[in-house]
Amino acid sequence: MSMTKSEVCVIIAAKNAAATIAVAIASALREPEVAEVVVVDDASTDDTAGVARSADDGSGRLSVMRLDVNRGPSFARNAAIAGSKSPFISILDADDFFLEGRFRNLFAGADWDFAADNIMLIRDDATGDATKIVAPQFAADPEFLDFERFVEGNISRRRVQRGELGFLKPVISRAFLDRHGLSYDESLRLGEDY
């Protein structure tokens, strides 16, 4: 699936993320495949919304919604999805960022409705600009990840590092979400994206 225009909406649910939100937004706006970045400030008590607005690159792709009452990340993500228009949805946590070329690499593969890529864990005390890290090369061939492998990849085992698959932030076709009536379970405030 090759992409010739901007077709991705990046959704960032944020609560008290003033310290990290600007890096997350900048990493999304840097990607040419991104048509929209929707930040939902879930009733933060810090200046998350203000910092988010300050991270705007002037391209008209950033919108910031602020909730007056904390409703949780599921509600925030559902509100952002409902208010967006792009055919692909990408979730980004407010304390994470995309490495350059993420969408170019994902869309270079075959047609799909739901795709995720590898994650890298970066220590909080890492020095230098973490957004400039060059990711290690992984196999170019996509792998099918069924539910059983997903769950097994998140179970701790002695002397084996977990796969941390629950941290994956997929890119999802809006048509797939609509076709299957999928949304985030708003009764969950933790593990809602598992």
Question: Would you write up a description of this structure?
Answer:
With 194 residues, the chain is an alpha/beta fold. The protein has a domain at 8-117 and 168-180: Alpha-Beta Complex (Spore Coat Polysaccharide Biosynthesis Protein SpsA, Chain A). It is built from six helices and six strands; from the N terminus they run E-H-E-H-E-H-E-H-E-H-E-H. It has helices at residues 21-29, 48-54, 73-83, 102-107, 147-152, 174-180; strands at 8-14, 34-42, 62-67, 88-91, 114-115, 171-173. The chain has a six-stranded mixed sheet, with helices on both faces. Strand 1, helix 1 (21-29) and strand 2 form a beta-alpha-beta unit. The longest helix is centred in the middle third of the chain and has 11 residues, at 73-83.
* Form type: globular
Class based on secondary structure composition and strand pairing:
alpha/beta
Give helix % range: 10-25%
Query: Low-confidence runs (pLDDT<50, min 5 residues)?
Result: 188-192
Mind telling me which CATH architecture of the domain at 8-117 and 168-180 this is?
Alpha-Beta Complex
Q: Specify the CATH homologous superfamily of the domain at 8-117 and 168-180.
A: Spore Coat Polysaccharide Biosynthesis Protein SpsA, Chain A
Mean pLDDT: 79
Q: Can you tell me the CATH class of the domain at 8-117 and 168-180? A: Alpha Beta
What percentage of amino acids are in beta strands?
15-25%
Rg computed from alpha carbons, rounded to a whole number of angstroms: 17 Å
Note the total helix count. 6
Based on DSSP secondary structure assignment, what is the total number of beta strands? 6
Fold-level CATH name of the domain at 8-117 and 168-180: Spore Coat Polysaccharide Biosynthesis Protein SpsA, Chain A
Q: Spell the H/E element sequence.
A: EHEHEHEHEHEH
Biggest pleated-sheet summary: 6 strands, mixed
Give the spatial strand order of the biggest sheet: 3-2-1-4-6-5
